[in-house]
Specification:
Structural class: alpha+beta
Bound molecules: ligand TSJ
Largest sheet: 8 strands, mixed
CATH superfamily of the largest domain: Histidine kinase-like ATPase, C-terminal domain
Shape: flat
Mean pLDDT: 86
Number of domains: 4
């Protein structure tokens, strides 16, 4: 099969070449995040087909050769000839932004970085193989080396099937990482399955031989149940949806006996992590309706002031999912993850006002329980606010908080916060060693005594009184909770340094839970790290070698030969020089950066891990603790 290089195809290759020259402009980055964007691009196309009513199943398969296949049972991509003489299929895969031109006004999943199309995936792949089953005919086409047509579109036989199959292999010359992460994929796919309510989404991993099937006819109701699985809930999930002015608004919520608020919003299946007009509408509608109802039934008297949004939403898990036609979509912010469409506010607000009011009126007893809970939250927050104001007033003459701090914190000398590091160290003795071993110009040490408070099960009052957490808040210097101001942080890196054992892992999780709930931006902006102390030391007659896991130890044993083995049970067994060399020196250490790739997964992980259902927690730790503390965080070398 030969390919004719006419002027047109050269132009097209120039287009795809531009993608290869600046991949970041099209998929954000060329790291693991960008790599997975390739899947989302292809998957979005298949899901669009399902959302528009054609087919009901999408399969993703990770193949042994490192390629990925996406299959749907929709109509099959168009194969007819274009005016240019090319097949529609070829145009889809070789012309930038060709996607979506076929059907105007339809719902599209596209949003944010997504939706740049199959041509970008083609440009960034070693090869792409396409099979289309349409009108009882099977067709094949193949591209190689960044989008060159190797096998033009060809009829290859008859079939009873219908649908599209696309396989692509990411180009290792483009991507710094080429292995897909099954957990990233299943998390994303499961989320889409919840939001789609009905279609069957399957992920098959040929590498581990496992298959994951996600299908939720109950949609958002199942999503809420999944998020709240470990919590003691006050009622069954409440779900409603309504179309207002061409915006389809779907809402689900459920109150639990916890103190946290968890809101997840989506537009056309894409998460809007920075919120936007729909979240604003949801919040104002929810607060307004609760207050209206509380006044109607007389819980709020004429002289009482309204409940505030924060109090109304304490313990509330909610999902807001909107479908907006493409021509009305507007996103804002640097990452395009904030909805800007103005009409979405009123649409969401009016759906919430109407449906929530119905719900409260039809469930008077439950409504009463919920409002009593809100009342308690309001009283507690008022008390906490008064206490804080008192503390602020008294601060000038009261140096207690600074004394508490100065006793524990060994601060760094430099004032340049962009270079400073704060080590949160498990235990006083390791803290002492770290103080001796550190680079005192840039590294501060804060030893932590005993266990950190489990903030998942504590009230605001308890958290405010906890000395350990107060010291951390004080040291970081940017406040906490609603007051947190990322610009005020005193350190560029907050590094959690614990023993490499289960107690250490527990302390890590407790601290991450605290940061996740009260300083989430700190994690989102990549300031939180976990130090990785070595597990073993190997000493031959001249030098010391370190291994950070068992596999590494085996390799090291081969390399070093006869040597004395030392197993480190904790940080305390290292002297100051060893601790510096292995764990703290920016030139030789390995830090694990904590990222928040998927807030819903993280939310569930935190609440399952830290909630009150011990059985779930034990099961979860058994199944997950290894990779949670290692693989699911991105490793950053040399800090
Ligand atoms: F990303 C992609 F383009 F490579 C891709 C597209 C990958 C996969 C797995 C599926 C798809 C895809 C596209 N599935 N279904 C469709 N549908 C169409 O492209 C299509 C089919 C028929 C008609 C029509 O008007 O007859 C229109 C369209 C857009």
């Amino acid at each position: 099969m030969k390919n004719n290089y006419d002027a047109n195809s050269i132009k097209i290759l120039e287009g795809l070449e531009a993608v290869r020259v600046r991949p970041g402009m099209y998929i954000g980055s060329v790291d693991t995040r960008g790599l997975h964007h390739l899947i989302w691009e292809i998957l979005d196309n298949a899901i669009d087909e399902i959302m528009n009513g054609y087919g009901n199943e999408v399969k993703i398969r990770l193949n042994k050769d490192g390629s990925c296949t996406v299959i749907d049972n929709g109509r099959g991509m168009p194969v007819d000839k274009h005016a240019s003489g090319k097949s529609a299929l070829e145009v889809i895969f070789t012309v930038l932004h060709a996607g979506g031109k076929f059907e105007e006004g339809a719902y599209k999943t596209a949003g944010g970085l997504h939706g740049v199309g199959a041509s970008v995936v083609n440009a960034l792949s070693e090869w792409v193989d396409v099979e289309v089953c349409r009108d009882h005919k099977r067709y094949h086409m193949r591209f190689e080396d960044g989008g060159k047509v190797i096998y033009p579109l060809e009829f290859i036989g008859n079939t009873n099937k219908q649908g599209s199959t696309v396989t692509f292999k990411p180009d290792p010359r483009i991507f710094s990482v080429t292995n897909f992460n099954i957990e990233t994929i299943t998390t994303h796919v499961q989320e889409e399955a919840f939001l789609l309510s009905g279609p069957k989404l399957t992920v098959e991993d040929e590498l581990n031989g496992k298959q994951y099937i996600y299908q939720y006819p109950q949609g958002l109701k199942s999503f809420i149940e999944y998020l709240n699985e470990d919590k003691d809930v006050l009622h069954k999930p409440v779900v409603f949806s309504k179309n207002i002015n061409n915006i389809e608004v779907s809402i689900a919520f459920q109150f639990s006996d916890t103190y946290q608020e968890n809101m997840f919003s989506f537009v056309n299946l894409v998460r809007t992590k920075d919120g936007g007009t729909h979240e604003i509408g949801f919040k104002s509608g929810f607060t307004k309706t609760i207050n209206d109802y509380a006044r109607t039934v007389g819980i709020l008297k004429e002289k009482d002031k309204n409940f505030e949004g924060n109090d109304v939403r304490e313990g509330l898990t909610s999902i807001i999912s909107l479908a907006i036609r493409e021509d009305a979509l507007q996103f804002e912010g640097q990452t395009k993850s904030k909805l800007g469409t103005p009409e979405a506010k009123n649409a969401t607000e009016s759906v919430v006002c109407e449906q929530l009011m119905y719900f409260l009126q039809e469930n008077k007893e439950l409504a009463n329980t919920i409002i009593k809970k809100i009342q308690k939250a309001a009283i507690a927050r008022d008390a906490a606010r008064k206490a804080r104001e008192e503390a602020r007033k008294g601060k000038k003459n009261d140096k207690k908080s600074e004394r508490v701090l100065s006793g524990k914190l060994a601060n760094a000398q430099s004032r340049d916060s962009s270079k400073l590091e704060l080590f949160l160290v498990e235990g006083d003795s390791a803290g002492g060693t770290a103080k001796k071993g550190r680079d005192s110009k840039y590294q501060a040490i804060l030893p932590l005594r005993g266990k950190v408070l489990n903030t998942e099960r504590a009230s605001i009052g308890e958290i405010e009184k906890n000395e350990e957490l107060n010291t951390i808040i004080h040291a970081i210097g940017a406040g906490a909770g609603a007051d947190f101001a990322i610009d005020d942080i005193n350190y560029d890196k907050i590094i959690i340094m614990t023993d490499a054992d289960t107690d250490g892992a527990h302390i890590q999780v407790l601290l991450l839970t605290f940061f996740y709930r009260y300083m989430r931006q700190l994690i989102e902006t990549g300031h939180v790290y976990i130090a990785t102390p070595p597990l073993y030391g190997l000493k031959n007659n001249k030098e010391m070698y370190y291994a950070y896991d068992d596999e590494e130890l085996l390799k090291l044993k081969e390399k070093v030969g006869k040597a004395e083995l030392k197993r480190y049970k904790g940080l305390g067994e290292m002297n100051a020089d060893e601790l510096w060399e292995t764990t703290m020196n920016p030139l030789t250490r390995t830090l694990v950066q904590v990222t928040l790739d998927d807030a819903a997964a993280c939310e569930r992980r935190v609440s399952v891990l830290m909630g009150n259902k011990a059985e779930l927690r034990r099961k979860w730790i058994d199944e997950n603790i290894d990779f949670t503390l290692e693989e699911s965080y991105q490793v950053v070398n040399n800090g």
